[in-house]
Design brief:
With 447 residues, the chain is an alpha/beta fold. It folds into 2 domains: 218 residues, UDP-n-acetylglucosamine1-carboxyvinyl-transferase, Chain, CATH 3.65.10.10; 208 residues, UDP-n-acetylglucosamine1-carboxyvinyl-transferase, Chain. Helix content is 29%, strand content 25%. It is built from 14 helices and 24 strands. Helix 12 links the parallel strand 22 and strand 23. Helix 5 runs parallel beside helix 6. The longest helix has 13 residues. It is globular, with a radius of gyration of 22 Å. The protein binds uridine-diphosphate-N-acetylglucosamine. The site of uridine-diphosphate-N-acetylglucosamine has 20 residues, from helix 1, helix 5 and helix 6.
Length: 447
């Protein structure tokens, strides 16, 4: 049935094409910021809504470009996606007309591949493009495809597209991933909820966003449970129902603002912060000598008078509950201000340290050892520079560096940051930052 609602609140996120951040740094940031809903949870929840023809309603959805792209992609295949007010999305996928996810959608966002599992499970077929996303290493999708094949799907790869079919229903299976994969786990979960029989997923990613998705699937009537920390079991059902869900808070956004407080020597309070999901990160901050207070949903970082006491510490990223790879780059900004040499080991992605070259252009003393290792020696006073954002998380970290730096910075590639952070410049402005977003070509760059 087509949507009968009388209105559709047409959301236009901040313009994203070819913009620049211009930041005058060196001012302590102080005040409170509300943490938005999690990007990495919201995108999968929207995908999960196509497991049922009934309406699903999501609140606390971040107003970001990736969510807008996911909503457009769903609309393109015939799903009704309403956005009745800010941060609320409603999805009804009674009529899915096109079981086809084109390159145009996939190239914008890797999470478009999250449509493979649910479309296959509910409609028995889909043609889906190889996904795009951040420029951080190869980022293949072989493990998603292997999982679907293990669940009984037939999948061929031709000309950049996966042609997937599930003759009859998918069948429950024992899935063994060779490494921990977040979206691989989530795609398998979504597919297994409508498969025939029992599925065991091991090792299942333990990221909080995976459990947020799991909770939503339970509300939809799915028989799914985390039976051990690294194991999820699913008993497939014939159909699921619509449900409402509030997206959990974004731990990566929270971590980014925590660093802003620390490196600008200010005092930042985060509201609706997911304290429980930031343990490994808080531990890094504390080892570096940053004062952090966490109380349920409030986090306070006091960086005043701290520049002398920051000390180097080694960090290593890992799947949850380890230090999130998405928080590696903000942590590196902090380490550039700490006394001594810190070793950085990025274990999850290759090439996720490349952005450190840009941090170096702002005066940080960084040494890239190989694709997975770097050293940062501090403290070095950062200075304004013209730098370019290559991916989402590195982009937010260059903003942090520019806020801490003396002088004015010009940061190219602002659209990468809008993919994943709601109103990031507005939030920094509220904390007293001097940050503006201007169209490319309208600024003279700093020396
Ligand atoms: C998700 C997050 C991303 C985060 C990452 C790790 C979303 C939208 N993105 O990405 O922000 O940085 O988890 O926490 O939720 N791999 C394969 N084959 C596959 C899939 C993954 O080899 O089919 C490899 C990857 O290249 C990487 C590792 O597995 O080296 C982990 O990646 P994965 O956990 O799958 O990351 P994403 O789910 O893509």
């Amino acid at each position: 049935m087509a949507d009968a609602r009388p209105f559709h609140w047409e959301f236009r996120p901040e313009p994203v094409a070819r913009e620049i951040f211009r930041i005058e740094g060196g001012r302590p940031l102080s005040g409170s910021v509300r943490v938005s809903g999690s990007k990495n949870a919201a995108l999968k929840l929207l995908a999960a809504a196509i497991l049922t023809g009934e309406r699903c309603r999501f609140s606390n959805v971040p107003e970001i470009e990736d969510v807008r792209v996911m909503a457009e992609t769903l609309r393109d295949i015939g799903v009704v996606v309403d956005h009745p007010e800010k941060n609320i999305y409603e999805v009804a996928s009674g009529d899915v007309e096109w079981l086809f996810v084109p390159l145009e959608a996939a190239a914008k966002m890797r999470a478009s591949f999250m449509l493979l599992g649910p479309l296959l499970a509910r409609f028995g077929r889909v043609i889906i493009s190889n996904p795009g996303g951040d420029r951080i290493g190869r980022r293949p999708v072989n493990l998603h495809v292997d999982a679907m094949r293990a669940l009984g799907a037939e999948i061929e790869y031709r000309n950049g597209y996966y042609f997937a079919r599930a003759p009859g229903r998918l069948r429950g299976a024992e899935l063994r991933f060779p490494i921990v994969t977040v979206m691989g786990t989530e795609n398998a979960m979504l597919a297994a909820t409508l498969a025939d029989g029992h599925t065991v997923i091991r090792p299942a990613a333990q990221e909080p966003e995976v459990d947020d998705l799991l909770g939503f699937l339970q509300k939809m009537g799915a028989e799914i449970e985390r039976t051990y920390p690294d194991t999820i079991e699913v008993e497939g059902r014939k159909r699921l129902r619509g449900a409402d869900h509030r997206v959990l808070s974004d731990r990566i956004e929270a971590g980014t603002f925590m660093i802003a407080g620390a490196v600008t020597g200010g005092r930042v309070t985060l509201e609706e912060a997911p304290c429980d999901h930031l343990e490994a990160f808080v531990e890094v901050l504390q080892r570096a000598g940053v004062e952090v207070a966490c109380d349920h949903t409030i986090i306070e970082v006091d960086g005043r008078g701290m520049d002398e006491s920051l000390r180097a510490c080694d960090i290593e990223t890992a799947p949850y509950p380890g230090l999130a790879t998405d928080l590696q780059s903000p942590a590196c900004v902090l380490l550039s201000q700490a006394r001594g040499t810190s070793r950085v080991h990025e274990t999850v992605f290759e090439d996720r340290l490349e952005w450190l070259a840009e941090l170096g252009r702002m005066g940080a003393n960084v040494r890239l050892i190989d694709d997975h290792h770097a050293e940062i020696t501090g403290p070095r006073r950062l200075h304004g520079a013209e730098v370019e954002i290559g991916d989402l998380r590195a982009g937010a970290s260059l903003i942090l560096a520019a806020l801490a730096a003396k002088g004015t910075s010009t940061i190219l590639g602002a659209h990468h940051v809008h993919r994943g952070y709601e109103n990031i410049d507005g939030k920094f402005l509220e904390l007293g930052a001097r940050i503006e977003r201007v169209a490319e070509g309208t600024v003279t760059t700093s020396p």
